[in-house]
Every structure is written in structure tokens, then in C-alpha cells.
Design goal:
Structural class: alpha/beta
Shape: globular
CATH topology: Rossmann fold
CATH class: Alpha Beta
CATH architecture: 3-Layer(aba) Sandwich
Number of helices: 8
Order of helices and strands: EHEHHEHHEHHEEEH
Length: about 230
């Protein structure tokens, strides 16, 4: 019988250290000899992200709210479906650890803010879980870690990143939208029982190494002793 792996998700708003923390946890688990695969969403290197790219650069509207939450969610879901079947599904089915920078859980925040009442958001949450985990057959996470970076700190980090890159997508250009997304992440963390890790105070972020220690401690109960096979 095939052995199901473990799926660990790191979630946060833009410029909150997801990529860094995913990398640090990946490197730490590799050093322990664990069978681990690292993925990230959207998968910009894949053709499956074409609609996501069009949405984020404003082809369907200059504001995130111009695109219905359900339509935008479908764009991201197709990208995840392709990634699972082409890049990491086999490793997962064989019992490997999958570390993901964003997942279905991102839509719970980024798209839910487009819905203006609790009833509509709860209906959307139910639809999204059914669509991705049941209809598309994507695995449910074993652990979701919410990296709770204060908006004041992420604003500063995002501005520095945008200045360096010289560009920003329709989410990154709208500070009010990003602040509402942070609130939605906090709500989702409470509602779905995610692990919350405080990543800063005011405009000052914590040291990445200290956050990484907290992330590692959160992951250990999920990983279990049986996951320490030598990485091939």
C-alpha cells in the first residue's frame, strides 16, 4: 500500500518571509536526512500559471476586486493541480515531506476579502475545500503555519522589494487590500486551527533565525520519527 506523506504549508501576506522560512526549514530537514521536497505557489516557471500571471498583472482588471473570488481561485487551483501531478505528487504518495510556500490556504485569505459578509465567506470556504480537496483531489495540509508579520513591517519590506525589482503586481500595489488580507489570514488561522507564529512587533521584524526555530518546533510533531529516512 502506498504511504501518504506529510504536507506542511507556510502562509503569510506578501513580503512576510515565507520564501526564507520555507528555505530554512527545507535545509534543516535535509541536513537531518529527511526525505523532503520544496514547492512554491504560484508556480511561475510552469505554463499552468498563465492565468495567474494575467490576473496579477492586471489583464482582467487593475484592482484585485475586479475579478470574482471564485474565478481567481480557479486560476490558482489549476496551477496547483498541475504542480501536484507533474512535480511532487509521487514524492508525497511515497511518504515524503512536502514543504510548500503558499497553497490552497492562500485563497482563504486573498480571495475571501472580496466577500463582504461572514455568510458569503463561509460559503466560499466550503466551496474552495470541496473544489480543491475533493473535486481536484489535491491533498489536505497536515500543518499550516501562519507567519504573522505585522502590516507595518511587511509594508516596509514590500516597499524595499518593489524598489529593487522595479515592479509590483495588483495585490502588492494596494496597501489597503494587503492589510485586509492580513486580517483575513488571522481570521482563517483561528477558524481552521493553523499554527500562528509572531514574526515582529510594530515595524520591526524578528530575526529570521529565531522565527525559523519556532517553525521547526511547530513542524516536529507532524513529521514524526518515521520521516527521518535518508534523502535520496
Amino acid at each position: 500500500m502506498e504511504k501518504k506523506g506529510k504536507l506542511i504549508i507556510l502562509e503569510a501576506g506578501d513580503a512576510s518571509g515565507k520564501e526564507t522560512q520555507t528555505r530554512l526549514l527545507y535545509e534543516r530537514l535535509l541536513s537531518e536526512g529527511r526525505n523532503v521536497t520544496r514547492v512554491s505557489f504560484p508556480d511561475y516557471e510552469s505554463d499552468s500559471s498563465a492565468l495567474v500571471k494575467m490576473y496579477l498583472r492586471g489583464d482582467f482588471g487593475a484592482q484585485a476586486a475586479d475579478v470574482d473570488a471564485y474565478a481567481a481561485s480557479a486560476f490558482f487551483a489549476v496551477d496547483r493541480y498541475a504542480s501536484f501531478h507533474r512535480k511532487w505528487g509521487e514524492a508525497y504518495r511515497r511518504g515524503g515531506v512536502i514543504l510548500s510556500d503558499r497553497y490552497t490556504t492562500s485563497n482563504l485569505a486573498h480571495q475571501a476579502v472580496k466577500l463582504d459578509n461572514e455568510k458569503a465567506r463561509r460559503e466560499y470556504f466550503s466551496w474552495l475545500e470541496d473544489f480543491e480537496y475533493i473535486r481536484l483531489g489535491l491533498p489536505r495540509p497536515d500543518l499550516v503555519v501562519f507567519l504573522d508579520m505585522p502590516p507595518e513591517a511587511s509594508d516596509r519590506l514590500l516597499a524595499a522589494r518593489a524598489k529593487e525589482a522595479g515592479t509590483a503586481d495588483i495585490h502588492e500595489k494596494d496597501k489597503n487590500y494587503l492589510h485586509r488580507v492580513h486580517e483575513a489570514y488571522a481570521e482563517a488561522a483561528r477558524l481552521f486551527g493553523w499554527t500562528r507564529i509572531a514574526c515582529g512587533k510594530g515595524a520591526t521584524p524578528r530575526k529570521p533565525e529565531d522565527i525559523a526555530d519556532d517553525v521547526y518546533r511547530a513542524a516536529l510533531p507532524v513529521l514524526g520519527a518515521e520521516e527521518t529516512d535518508v534523502h535520496g
